[in-house]
Design brief:
Layout: H1 3-16, E1 25-28, E2 34-37, E3 67-84, E4 98-102, E5 113-116, E6 125-141, E7 153-160, H2 164-178
Antiparallel strand pairs: 1-7, 2-3, 3-6, 3-7, 4-5, 4-6
Helix pairs in contact: 1-2
The chain binds 2-acetamido-2-deoxy-beta-D-glucopyranose (NAG) (5 copies).
One 2-acetamido-2-deoxy-beta-D-glucopyranose (NAG) binds next to loops.
Length: 190
C-alpha cells in the first residue's frame, strides 16, 4: 500500500470518529445486541426493530405483559432510548409501555423503569432519557392483559468518553510530520 492510500484511509477513519457531542460521542449501540420478544405474530421478528427501517416492525401475540428484550451482551450506561411507532394502524397500542434497563434476563420486570411511554403518534420517533442507567438488557414491555407490543425501531444511545477532535487533529499532524521535516508533535492521551 502506498503512503497516499494509507493517509487517505486515516483521514477517512478520523472523520468517522469525529461526530462529537460535548463531553463525548453519542453512539446508537442497539445493533450490537441481540433482540428477542415474548411471542411472535406473523414474520414480525424481534430484529425488525434494529434494521434501520421504520417499515418493518416487531409484533407479539395478544397476551398478558408482552415484552421485547435487547441483550447488549455487556453492561452499558444508557443515555437515552428512542422508539419508532408503527404508522399504518394501531398506534395507540404503545400507550403505557415501559422502557427498562437492568441486568435480569429472566425476570425483566425486576429491572428499573427508565421511562413510561404515554403515547407516540403513528410513525413518529420519540426519545426517552435514561440518564446513564446501567444494565445489559434494554426492554420494552406493556403491563396488562390482552396487549400487543409492536416496535418499528428501537435505538439505544450510549455516550463514550473523550472528545477525540483535538486528538485526531494532532494525530494527523503526527502523520504529516512523518512524511516531512516538520517536528513530530506530542498528542495528549484521552
Ligand atoms: C426468546 O424468548 C422466548 C420466550 O421467552 C424463549 O422461549 C426463547 O428461547 C428466546 N429465544 C432466544 C434465542 O433466547
Ligand atoms: C420513516 O418514515 C417516514 C415516513 O413516514 C420517512 O419520511 C422517513 O424517512 C422514514 N425513516 C427511516 C429511517 O426510514
Ligand atoms: C393513547 O394515547 C392517545 C394520545 O394521548 C390517546 O388519544 C388515546 O385515546 C390513547 N388510547 C388508549 C387506548 O389508551
Ligand atoms: C448491572 O450490573 C452492573 C455491573 O455489575 C452494575 O454496575 C449496575 O448497577 C447493574 N444495574 C442494575 C440496574 O442493577
Ligand atoms: C433475576 O430475577 C430472579 C427472579 O426474580 C432472581 O431469582 C434472580 O436472582 C435475578 N437475577 C439477577 C441477576 O438479578
Amino acid at each position: 500500500m502506498n503512503m497516499r492510500v494509507v493517509f487517505k484511509s486515516l483521514l477517512f477513519l478520523l472523520g468517522f470518529f469525529s461526530v462529537q457531542t460535548k463531553g463525548g460521542t453519542e453512539v446508537n449501540i442497539a445493533t450490537w445486541g441481540k433482540a428477542n420478544q415474548s411471542t411472535q405474530a406473523y414474520n414480525w421478528y424481534p430484529s425488525n426493530a434494529l434494521d434501520g427501517k421504520n417499515s418493518t416492525c416487531t409484533h407479539t401475540d395478544v397476551q398478558s405483559d408482552p415484552w421485547w428484550k435487547l441483550d447488549l451482551m455487556k453492561t452499558y450506561s444508557v443515555n437515552r432510548v428512542t422508539i419508532t411507532n408503527r404508522h399504518d394502524c394501531c398506534s395507540y397500542r404503545i400507550n403505557g409501555s415501559e422502557i427498562r434497563v437492568g441486568n435480569n434476563s429472566s425476570d425483566l420486570f425486576r429491572n428499573p423503569v427508565c421511562a413510561v411511554v404515554s403515547s407516540i403518534p403513528a410513525g413518529a420517533t420519540y426519545s426517552y432519557s435514561c440518564g446513564g442507567m446501567k444494565g445489559r438488557y434494554v426492554t420494552v414491555n406493556i403491563p396488562g392483559t390482552s396487549k400487543i407490543l409492536t416496535l418499528c425501531e428501537v435505538e439505544v444511545y450510549v455516550i463514550f468518553p473523550g472528545n477525540s477532535e483535538p486528538q485526531s487533529k494532532c494525530l494527523l499532524a503526527q502523520i504529516r510530520a512523518k512524511q516531512s521535516l516538520f517536528p513530530r508533535p506530542k498528542c495528549r492521551k484521552e
